Amino acid sequence: MEKRPPEHAQTQERPESETEGATVLVTAAQRKPALAIARTLGKREYEVVVASHHRIAQSFFSRYATHTAVYTDPKRNERAFVADLLATVARYDVDVLLPTDHVTTISVLRFRDRFASDLSIPAVEYETLLATEDKARLLSIADDIGIPTPDTHRPGSLAELEEIAAEIDYPAVIKHNKGVGASGVQYVTSPAELRSVYDSSGESTQHIERDWPLVQEYVPGETHDVNALFVEGEPRVAFTAHRTSTFPRSGGRAVITESTREPELVDSATRLLEHLEWHGVAEVEFKLDADGDPKLMEINPRIWGNIDLAIRTGVDFPALLCDLALTGAVTPPTSYAVGRKVIWLDEGLASNLWASSGRLDYARYVAREYVTGAETPVELSDVAPHVVRLLQLGARGARAAVQGGWRTLASSVVGESGA
What is the C-alpha to C-alpha distance for residues 139 and 132, in angstroms, rounded to an integer? Predict the structure, then answer.
């Protein structure tokens, strides 16, 4: 990739001792990363403003939330969302803006030039973000620099789909080319099933010319993540984790994660992020194939869902991001705890229990993990957010169960991701 001068927002040069009094705005307060961020920064004496398009969001009830704000849902009106954020930044004299979900990250970076120069947004440039948004483009970049990826096809017509259907191995995966996570992922076991997904009469169809979905090799193994912090294309911090349980069980958002130390994965992720001249944090996701070899799946260009695990092991990415934003410097931790596990008591766990045929065995497995040392994000000194979230999930789950039974309930509780 051709080198170019840095285009990132200017860092605010200030003595390191002053960072503790700075004000940080955190978006997507309804999601679990926002709560973890509010807690760790609040404990470090930051002023934390948590914001959401929901009027009732779990982080609003945290003792570490100094202020709360409600903004327009960017999916409905992106420009109104940006205007609301600008008003919140001005009202609370915000120093650092941390977008923490996919939608607000895209909107903030797209309209980055609307924010004042003295507001720091420690994140990658929008043009680089677009490279990670386009999975086909990202996987092509990875292939070019020697990072293994799943065999991937992007049909541009039904005729091309027919050719692909006859050539590939099954099972296969169909997924959206844009976005991150397991949303929109479907599995097919035959050419007939593959064609049926594109049948215009079906509910779960894909529109080739509009969505440009990918047909991808099925990678059966578990997910391993590299969480990294880069400064102007240079690696500063790396942390690895293994998703020992996910929802859906075939791969997706973490239900149980364990801290690991996997230098080979760090090497691959570092080469990719260096090539992209990364700035800020990223989660680079790999899955193991049938031979146990890792293959790149995607890059999550923001703070990830299981950030609490890294914080608990000694790698406080939110605090490091704020150090970068406010002082221009990052002091990496010398080590972190390996083998530490966190169980996420949220929609994914509930859905696995409700949707799994072997739910009793799964419940025993989770209980065994907890008894043998796995932690949960629950803090008794800050329990209100968990109570609020539990009531929200219970209410939505009850409505779904009445309307459509257990399968609808499982679908409903993951409809609004807490990842």
Answer: 9
Do residues 231 and 283 share a domain? Answer: yes
Q: What is the pLDDT of residues 103-156, one digit of tens each?
A: 999 999 999 999 988 899 999 999 999 999 999 999 999 999 999 999 999 888
The helix or strand, by DSSP H or E, that contains position 224, with its residue range, turns out to be strand 223-231
- The C-alpha atoms of residue 51 and residue 40 are separated, in whole angstroms, by 16
Show the domain range for 253.
223-344
- Identify whether 385 is preceded by a cis peptide bond (ω within 30 of 0): no
* Digit-coded pLDDT (tens) for 176-197: 888 666 566 888 999 999 988 8
Cβ neighbors of 66 (< 8 A, separation 6 or more) are: 23, 42, 47, 48, 49
The count of domains in the chain is: 3
Q: Which amino acid is at 330?
A: V
The helix or strand, by DSSP H or E, that contains position 272, with its residue range, turns out to be: helix 263-275
Q: What is the pTM of this model?
A: 0.89
Give me the amino acid identity at 313: T
Tell whether 93 is covered by a domain: yes
- Show the CA angle centred on residue 1, arms to residues 276 and 219, nearest 5°: 50
Question: Where does 93-207 have alpha helices with state H?
Answer: 102-110, 126-133, 135-144, 158-167, 191-197
DSSP 186: E
* Domain match, 210 and 235 both: no
Identify whether residues 100 and 177 lie together within a single domain.
no
Same domain, 160 and 209: yes
Give the whole-angstrom CA distance, residue 302 versus residue 108. Answer: 12
Q: Which of 137, 89, 142 is nearest to 273 (CA)?
A: 142
One domain for residues 94 and 173? no
Residues in the chain: 419
